[in-house]
């Protein structure tokens, strides 16, 4: 259990750093989504199922969709 | 258990929920409901004051309501003591005047505007009334989101940029506040303010310092004190005038309320003294006041200038409150009231005057006074009150602030008060002089001008807008002559700030 | 104000570096302070947990909800949940207010036939799962907020896969607004019912309680969950929709 948690935390920090590191928005968003998924797993490990469900649905699902639509707006807006 | 203090929050909330529904049925009914909501709110406040007048006199005024029937510290408690009542009344009066002004002023997207406006009303009432830390955070978040949206109301590029800047700063402050609430819950296992206040001193001093510092940073960002003031002028400038009046007249005062509640009732001033934060904060606030007035001197945009002057005044109020004396609170609270009416009145008057100009810049202010004489005279009266001319309300409050600084031998503070008045003379007189300058309009200008004021040329709109401006001026002049009227409420509020044990006892025991 | 063009990129990159160092220093400071604070805190056993202990012991008895988190969210601290859902309500109003302008429609034709067919089969199951999460909030993990987001995902999938015009025909903005305010008013109405029936705002309605563990147990909690679910779902769908489409021009 402890080993799994350490691995997950390492990946969590890694994905957070990668999300900040890249200038390309799309990659950042994908890493944010991965971040949310790892966080969901961590919440589940700590038996917080409600929070895990919320994080999975909002962080990994909805946020990604809204960020994507924002990006597509920016790219369309360039030609305006 | 007085159910009216619950309905002070629920009435605007219900109105906000109902407005989109009414819009789907018939948009013409909207204004009727808006007026109904705000009148019901005023009725509740007035009935609370009248029914409890005797206990207000005697100084043992206290009302509370247990939400969901759960007694503290388990559930959420609403509590109203002298300080809450004072802030609830002045907030309600301001919001009442500004909503009537908005009926005249706002011309597009009225449905969404009133929804957000009533959410602001509900949230500021909630902040003032609640006795629960997490509940305060929820209402702060509500205030941030709704006011941020209203700053972007004009939907221009500038307005959106200002709204995003405002949101970034304020959401960050909200998150810091949340972190503080979280740490308090971790360490003490409770969220009720009275309960926290009882146990806060038992924490280790390192944790105390960290929690106080986090709350302090959050509140300083929200109030716009020196190191974090850069979001303020831009958002004041681009928001529509009634929204700016709300921002400066209501929101900054609500944050001041949170500041007082947090650092006197919950954390306790002794803790701040023990952590050596009080001197630092006093100097920071005075510095902020100084910078506000200096920035105002070089500003070439009337609304931005008023924003910078707001920073100056809020800094001054914070500083005088930080003295922690009776005189300091007396001056500070009186100046909160007078600044609330003066600034809101000024922005309201600006909204009328700037309808006729191309931009908010200094050069476009030329000749404004000649075209709308009566409103401009009201505007000048409000400006003179800001400077601190004797028969007006601004003089009375500034006098008490000055006296408080002198009594506490804080000569730098006294210097800042005088300095603020002197610089205000310079930067306001410039605008008054410009307003009376003769301007020659070419034919193009005239044509452009006719097209540029579609809204206020409707007769009833102009009547409403100018009427509210006069109402603010009347308040300033009337209460300036009779400022002793505030004596009872101010003493009551100071009593409830200073007597923390009584608050704890009433909330937990009542 | 003539800046030589050769040095400009250098200055810019220097600025960027400065900013990055500043941000890193601030973040490191905050992290250090947090670490200090957490190391000062008493261990897990020594935490002051009076309130949580009480809820763990008598939450089921008090509220009838098996899921204690839902019990806290919709009974002990239901007023906070009302506030949180109002925050979403305000955010929806604000976003519609700011973004309602002419924009280029995105993916108006939708994706390929295969994707459309697959999604057509899957959508009812997604909806079922969303409704399950909402209505079983007091029995299993989940509740109004989470289930509402799952329902909003359907609308999002419709606009991405079938094109936003399809979504508009299926669930017009007016329907969504009606659903949203309906959900909010349900919450408020249940709270007011608490005043008349039980004597306190948002008091759990005792007469609705059935045997613990059944679907209609826990008094008014499932109904509040349904209200919040529809409110959040419709609100988030409106947010997504107003970000991609151009039909919100009139003020409704």
Automatic annotation (TrEMBL), chain A:
| Protein's UniProt keywords contain Transmembrane helix | yes
Principal cellular location given in the protein's record: membrane
Q: Which residues form the MrpA C-terminal/MbhD domain?
A: 10-75
What superkingdom heads the lineage?
Bacteria
- Residues that span the membrane, as ranges: 29-45, 52-74
Its annotated compartments are: Cell membrane
Listed under GO cellular component are: plasma membrane
The answer, when asked if Ligase is one of the entry's keywords, is no
Keywords on this record?
Cell membrane, Membrane, Transmembrane, Transmembrane helix
Cite a single Pfam family from the UniProt record.
Answer: MbhD
The way this protein sits in the membrane is described as: Multi-pass membrane protein
Name this protein carries in UniProt: Putative MnhB-related membrane protein
Automatic annotation (TrEMBL), chain B:
State if Hydrolase is listed as a keyword: no
Report any one BP term from Gene Ontology.
Answer: ATP synthesis coupled electron transport
Task: Indicate the transmembrane segments per the record.
Answer: 6-25, 32-54, 74-101, 113-130, 136-154, 166-186, 206-232, 244-267, 279-298, 305-323, 329-354, 375-396, 408-429, 464-486
Origin species: Halanaerobium saccharolyticum
Secretion signal: which residues?
none
User: What GO annotations for molecular function exist for this entry?
Assistant: NADH dehydrogenase (ubiquinone) activity
Family matches, as InterPro entries: CPA3_Na-H_Antiporter_D, NADH_UbQ_OxRdtase, ND/Mrp_TM
Family, similarity comment: Belongs to the CPA3 antiporters (TC 2.A.63) subunit D family.
Keywords in alphabetical order: Cell membrane, Membrane, Transmembrane, Transmembrane helix
Domain NADH:quinone oxidoreductase/Mrp antiporter transmembrane, by residue range, is 132-421
In its keyword annotation, does this UniProt entry include Transmembrane helix? yes
Q: How does it sit in the membrane?
A: Multi-pass membrane protein
Q: Which Pfam families match?
A: Proton_antipo_M
State what protein this is by name. Answer: Multicomponent Na+:H+ antiporter subunit D
Localization terms from the record: Cell membrane; Membrane
Could you tell me the superkingdom of the organism this chain comes from? Bacteria
Of the GO CC terms on this record, one is:
plasma membrane
Q: What is the first-listed, main subcellular location in coarse terms?
A: membrane
UniProtKB/TrEMBL annotation, chain C:
The reply to whether Transmembrane helix figures as a keyword in the UniProt entry is: yes
Xref: PANTHER family: NA(+)/H(+) ANTIPORTER SUBUNIT B, NA(+)_H(+) ANTIPORTER SUBUNIT B
Where is it predominantly found?
membrane
Compartments where located: Cell membrane
Which segments constitute the Na+/H+ antiporter MnhB subunit-related protein domain?
Answer: 114-236
Task: Give the MrpA C-terminal/MbhE domain ranges.
Answer: 25-106
Per the UniProt record, the lineage of the source organism begins with: Bacteria, Bacillati, Bacillota, Clostridia, Halanaerobiales
Protein name in the entry: Multicomponent Na+:H+ antiporter subunit B
Native source species: Halanaerobium saccharolyticum
Recite the UniProt keywords alphabetically: Cell membrane, Membrane, Transmembrane, Transmembrane helix
């Amino acid at each position: 259990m402890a080993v799994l948690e350490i691995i997950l935390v390492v990946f969590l920090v890694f994905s957070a750093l990668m999300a900040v590191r890249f200038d390309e928005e799309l990659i950042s968003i994908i890493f944010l989504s991965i971040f949310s998924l790892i966080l969901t797993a961590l919440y589940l490990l700590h038996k917080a199922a409600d929070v895990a469900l919320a994080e999975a649905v909002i962080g990994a699902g909805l946020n990604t969709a809204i960020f994507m639509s924002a990006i597509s707006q920016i790219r369309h807006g360039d030609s305006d | 258990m007085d159910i009216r203090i619950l309905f002070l929050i629920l009435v605007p909330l219900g109105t906000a929920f109902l407005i989109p529904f009414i819009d789907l049925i018939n948009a013409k009914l909207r204004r009727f409901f808006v007026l109904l909501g705000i009148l019901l709110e005023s009725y509740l406040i007035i009935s609370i004051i009248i029914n409890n007048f005797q206990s207000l006199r005697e100084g043992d005024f206290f009302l509370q309501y247990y939400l969901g029937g759960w007694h503290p510290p388990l559930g959420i408690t609403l509590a109203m003591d002298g300080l809450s009542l004072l802030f609830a009344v002045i907030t309600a009066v301001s919001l009442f005047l500004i909503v009537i002004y908005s009926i005249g002023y706002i011309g597009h997207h009225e449905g969404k505007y009133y929804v957000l406006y009533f959410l602001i009303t509900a949230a500021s009432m909630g902040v003032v009334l609640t006795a629960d830390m997490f509940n305060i955070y929820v209402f702060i978040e509500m205030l941030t989101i709704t006011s941020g949206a209203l700053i972007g109301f004009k939907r221009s590029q500038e307005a959106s940029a200002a709204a995003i800047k405002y949101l970034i700063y304020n959401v960050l402050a909200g998150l810091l506040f949340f972190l503080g609430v979280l740490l308090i819950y971790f360490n003490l296992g409770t969220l009720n303010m009275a309960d926290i206040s009882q146990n806060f001193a038992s924490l280790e001093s390192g944790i105390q310092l960290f929690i106080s510092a986090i709350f302090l940073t959050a509140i300083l960002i929200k109030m716009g004190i020196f190191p974090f003031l850069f979001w303020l002028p831009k958002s004041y400038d681009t928001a529509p005038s009634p929204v700016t009046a709300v921002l400066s007249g209501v929101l900054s005062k609500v944050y001041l309320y949170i500041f007082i509640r947090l650092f006197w009732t919950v954390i306790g001033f002794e803790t701040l003294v023990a952590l050596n934060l009080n001197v630092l904060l006093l100097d920071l606030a005075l510095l902020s006041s100084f910078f506000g007035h200096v920035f105002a001197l070089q500003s070439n945009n009337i609304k931005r200038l008023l924003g910078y002057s707001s920073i100056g005044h809020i800094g001054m109020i914070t500083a005088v409150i930080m003295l922690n004396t009776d005189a300091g609170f007396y001056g500070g609270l009186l100046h909160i009231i007078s600044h609330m009416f003066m600034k809101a009145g000024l922005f309201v008057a600006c909204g009328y005057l700037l309808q006729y100009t191309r931009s908010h810049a200094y050069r476009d202010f030329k000749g404004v006074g000649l075209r709308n004489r009566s409103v401009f005279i009201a505007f000048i009266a409000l400006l003179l009150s800001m400077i601190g001319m004797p028969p007006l309300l601004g003089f009375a409050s500034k006098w008490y602030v000055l006296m408080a600084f002198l009594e506490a031998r804080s000569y730098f503070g006294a210097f800042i008060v005088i300095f603020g008045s002197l610089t205000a003379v310079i930067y306001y007189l410039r605008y008054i002089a410009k307003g009376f300058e003769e301007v020659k309009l070419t034919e193009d200008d005239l044509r452009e001008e006719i097209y540029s004021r579609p809204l206020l040329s409707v007769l009833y709109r102009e009547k409403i807008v100018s009427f509210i401006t006069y109402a603010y001026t009347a308040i300033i002049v009337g209460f300036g002559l009779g400022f002793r009227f505030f004596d009872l409420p101010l003493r009551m509020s100071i009593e409830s700030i200073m007597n923390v044990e009584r608050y704890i006892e009433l909330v937990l025991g009542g | 104000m003539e800046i030589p063009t050769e040095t400009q990129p250098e200055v810019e990159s220097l600025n960027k570096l400065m900013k990055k160092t500043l941000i890193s220093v601030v973040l490191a400071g905050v992290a250090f302070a947090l670490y200090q604070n957490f190391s000062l805190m008493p261990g897990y056993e020594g935490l002051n947990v009076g309130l949580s202990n009480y809820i763990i012991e008598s939450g089921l008895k008090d509220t009838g909800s098996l899921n204690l988190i839902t019990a806290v969210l919709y009974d002990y601290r239901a007023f906070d949940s009302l506030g949180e859902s109002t925050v979403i309500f305000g955010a929806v109003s604000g976003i519609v207010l700011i973004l309602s302008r002419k924009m280029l429609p995105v993916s108006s034709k939708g994706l390929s036939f295969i994707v459309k067919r697959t999604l057509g089969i899957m959508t009812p199951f997604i909806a079922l799962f969303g409704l399950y999460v909402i209505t079983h909030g007091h029995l299993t993990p989940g509740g109004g907020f989470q289930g509402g987001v799952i329902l909003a995902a359907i609308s999002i999938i419709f606009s991405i896969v079938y094109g936003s015009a399809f979504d508009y025909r299926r669930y017009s903005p007016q329907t969504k607004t009606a659903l949203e305010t309906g959900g909010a008013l349900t919450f408020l109405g249940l709270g007011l019912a608490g005043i008349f029936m039980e004597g306190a705002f948002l008091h759990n309605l005792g007469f609705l309680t059935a045997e613990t563990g059944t679907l209609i147990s826990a008094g008014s909690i499932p109904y509040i969950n349904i209200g919040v679910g529809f409110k959040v779902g419709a609100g988030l769908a409106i947010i997504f929709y107003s970000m991609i489409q151009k039909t919100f021009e009139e003020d409704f």
